[in-house]
Amino acid sequence: MGRQRSGRGWPRGLAPYGRRPKPGxxxxxxxxxxxxxxxxxxxNDKMPNRxxxxxxxxxRMMRSMAATKVGVALLRPTANRLDQLISKATGxxxxxxxxxxxxxxxxxxxxxxxxxQPRTVAVYGIPHPDGLALIASNWGGAKHPAWYHNxxxxxxxxxxxxxxxxxATARPATPRERDEIWAxxxxxYPGWTKYETRAGARHIEAFVLSRK
Length: 212
What we know:
- The chain is an alpha+beta fold and 212 residues long.
- It has 2 domains: 5-41, no CATH class; 57-211, Electron Transport, Fmn-binding Protein, Chain A (Pnp Oxidase, Chain A).
- The protein contains 8 helices and 8 strands; from the N terminus they run ββαααααβββαββααβ.
- The protein has a 6-stranded antiparallel beta barrel, surrounded by 4 helices.
């Protein structure tokens, strides 16, 4: 990762959720979601990074609702448009998904597999030692999301997290990586387990995006 560590194991200057460590504070456990989010996404006090259990009541409610059939019916046709409007209004620093659920949200721009045109969507990001990972759940639909096919055809992408924009190269996660990404992901958003059930025969895959 290239980040120096200090003290009893924290990345230098970091403790859970981006704050500075207190003197004598114990180091992190690598199973802690807050640790991985701070370590993988970098120091950013504004970056939401709470697991489902640590989220506030409103964010827990929204995460639960979004995974229901009613939630999917309401959000699937509208969420992307709302994400675009809020992202544009905030200069790429916020999205509807991040505000509503408190989940780290990636503004992902890919190249259309068929059109060759830029395609932008907000997706939930999962910490990964190489950069970040994405789960291609598509709300539990029978087909992969469009961005999945775009990255398969052209792995070069642009990533924006809380206004920090960078170029990335994507690759499909290995089976072992996918399982690790999934385990970390459901700590943040348990609704993915419902999506997996609804996806039926489709295996929900994951991508790893490495910063160039």
